[in-house]
Write a structure and sequence with these properties.
Strand order of the largest sheet of chain A: 1-2-3-4-5
Number of strands of chain B: 2
Largest sheet of chain A: 5 strands, antiparallel
Distance between the termini of chain A: 60 Å
Number of strands of chain A: 5
Order of helices and strands of chain A: HHHHHEEEEEHH
Number of helices of chain B: 13
Shape of chain A: globular
Strand content of chain A: 15-25%
Largest sheet of chain B: 2 strands, antiparallel
Radius of gyration of chain B: 21 Å
Structural class of chain A: alpha+beta
Radius of gyration of chain A: 20 Å
Number of helices of chain A: 7
Distance between the termini of chain B: 63 Å
Helix content of chain B: 55-70%
Oligomer: heterodimer
Amino acid sequence: MIKIKNYSWILIFLLSFAAYAQSSEFAQEEEFVSNFADQAIEILSDEGISENDKTSRFTNVVMNAIDLNLISKFVLSKTWKNSTDEQKERYLIAFKDYFINSYANKLDQYSGEQVQIVGSEAAGKYVIVESNIVREGTDTLKINLKWRLINRDGDIKIIDLNIEGISLVIAQREEFQSFLANNDNDIDKLIDKIITVSN
Amino acid sequence: MKYRILIVLFLSSVLVLQGCASKEATVNYNNSETEIVSVNDPLEKVNRVVFQFNIIFDKLILRPIAVTYRAIVPEFVRNRVTYSLNNLGMPITAVNNVLQGELRKAGVSTSRFIINSTVGILGFFDPAASMGLVSENEDFGQTLSVWGVESGPYLVLPFLGPSTPRDFAGMLSTSLLDPMYQVGGGSAPDSLRTYRMGTGAVDFRSQNIEILDDLQNNSIDYYAAVRSFYSQGRESQASNNLEINTQDQENDIFDDFDIDESYVGPDIEIIYD
């Protein structure tokens, strides 16, 4: 036990240096996430606007920041390629409504959390920017967020958000795949279900 | 004695499950060659039934308690409870750090427990963190994964929720290994255990009321969503301790998806009414 404790004091030293060793490889991408978070938080913490206004302004910011088209195709996986143009169009419209509906009317739940950028790294074709959300009223209860970004010649878009190791886009994809597997791989059934849930 | 029965029950169930897994897992979900398929759920039919049962239990009991708890207890107190639960988890984390060969982490966890239990007033505050002592909770399921035990198929347990044979084994062994359960005797450890189990469930549930409500209401397939959340979460926790990185797997999934720009679809307009 005594040995272990001695170890820990050495570690305190190491840790205090490690905390400052994070570098910012992708300054452009980090700035993008930081700007996005600032814009979103500004809208969320604005007490003076109506619920509908809030949602519509928030949607504007989100839609400008994400590549919804790419996300829509990704979550549908190979079913996308096997669909007719008509089905693709119906699906894209339905998914967009579903996506907006997933956060609409819930924006008043925001309670002062702040986003801190921690660092960034390359991830295949993409860049991941890591950040923390600090729980209101504490300084150590943190939620880890990783933003997956695509950079097309300076045009940066978010394509995934990973919360504490859970990728929302992959979760959505697994959900759609499971629904399709239980419904004869029929995309029309999926579209109908998406529309029902969004209404 | 009662543990022995549980362990026997468990071992036999593992053997049975692995038999099923090897037969069925290869048949399911192999409808694509290129995709990385991570879903291992040969018992989906049974799991879905238990899952429905758990939803009802949650609706009738756990969620109402969590809602009441959050309504009555001020945020400051709730944060203290979260901290004290984290603190009570430190001894078992330290044991698992040692079992995983992470002596330095074990030192951190032990120091955290000692500092926060004293200076941090029974763990209600976290002065250790401001001293740079930060550690993640480790359970025996994660230790088993470090030891190379495969998670096995996805399981939904009555009352306890999502699990796998590995994590279930870890949970049972955790009660045997936890110093908090071994120290002393009589009612003090018992009440601590009850506090951790009961309050832990309520604490977790109260932090996730909106998230779980939303997930349930907005899901295309709630069962699959929870399964994905659980599997992804456990994998990323396990990978903290392993050479393999789940982020690499995640990157592969995204990279394998070739960006098909040939059909852009309808003009997605940003209109919200």
